[in-house]
Amino acid sequence: MDTKIVEWLISHGINENLATFLKTGFYIILIGFISLLSNLITKKIILRIIEAVIHKTKNTWDDIFIKKKVFSKLSHLVPALIILFSTDLIFKDYPNLIPVTNKAAYLYIIIIVMIVLNSVLLTLNSIYNTLPISKSRHISGYVQVVQIAVMFTGVMVIISVIFDADLKGLFLGLGTFAAVLMLVFKDTILGFVASIQVSMNNMVNPGDWISMPGRKADGVVLEINLNTVKVQNWDKTISTIPTYALVSESFQNWRGMEESGGRRIKRSINIDMTSVKFCSEKMILEFSKIQVLNNYIEAKEKELNEFNEKHNVDPSVLANGRRMTNLGSFRKYMEGYLHAHPLIHDNMTFLVRQLQPNDKGIPIEIYVFSRDQKWANYEAIQADIFDHILAVLPEFELKVFQNPTGSDFSNIIS
């Protein structure tokens, strides 16, 4: 056919060289048109048929391939293959251009294959993230390692095609630059090893709340990549932590708290030691009217009376025998109050304890767990409990210790 085209052009007064050139140009335009048409047919017809079939399936994972445009990117191979198989025909009369055109087609195909493989890896990662296991086992680090391997191999193949080098020899020659590569990709290598340890030991998962003061991170983990871990702090700022820091440095993961169903309240209030005293009959009578103390006061008074009678205690001296104190009664009241509180866990660690007295008084510590783990609600529960403590202390004739303020000194002066 190409001979007939040349002869036809020569018969119209065009010299042979120009006729050959025009024939080649005609083939270039024709193959270019066929390539564009094939790409258009692939995208507009074949891809739509594939997408329609996929949408009708019950599976949802195949829809992700469409969302990531894997098939759309793959369609670019069609014109490249057409050009590759047509170079011998197009440049039959210009054989020196065949290797150049073939190289260009090969390079285009390699780049498209790299893009498609990268898209497939991201799609598989997205599919994996829809599975329940992804909440405890993330594979983002492994996917990134494979992506790097794909890109690295692709670059080596491109170099091999451009310079007509032996691919095996190129890979063997890399051993000479191993030290340089180790230095350049130090963070990547450390991150890869760390991501394996983090994943295998289930140390951190996306969605976990971690605290890492050394890195100024305190919030929810958004992503765990090969090189970095992104944490959204409570003030909505983003902290970026090297992945290997999770292995080499200490951090606090609050996942256990979230899974337990409770959030710890650990706070104390200092009682003025001068306000601690034995309970008088009047105080005992008043305490017995408090609902959460009623049974305790009755049982405790009976226990103490039996002990004192058994040991012939002289009740006229307060130091003799055993007696109730206002501080002990207050601790029992707080236990009863917290047990009755609807937002405090009864089946988790539950303490109202007295700590070591110091120069600021006697610390009475509340160590319990709230049922609500949300930060704002948790703080509200905690504040409500201590509001109540401050308000009820005078009922037990107890005082809170605090350092003198300006008004205290003013009263002394006046």
Descriptive tags:
single chain, 414 residues, alpha+beta, SH3 type barrels, Alpha-Beta Plaits, three-stranded antiparallel sheet, rod-shaped
If you had to describe this structure to a student in words, what would you say it looks like?
Helices cover 57% and strands 11% of the residues. With 414 residues, the chain is α+β, with helices and mostly antiparallel strands. The protein has four domains: 2-196, no CATH class; 201-259, SH3 type barrels (Roll), CATH 2.30.30.60; 263-277 and 325-411, Alpha-Beta Plaits (2-Layer Sandwich), CATH 3.30.70.100; 287-322. A five-stranded antiparallel β-sheet has the order 4-3-2-1-5. It has a three-stranded antiparallel β-sheet with strand order 6-8-7. It is rod-shaped and about 140 Å long.
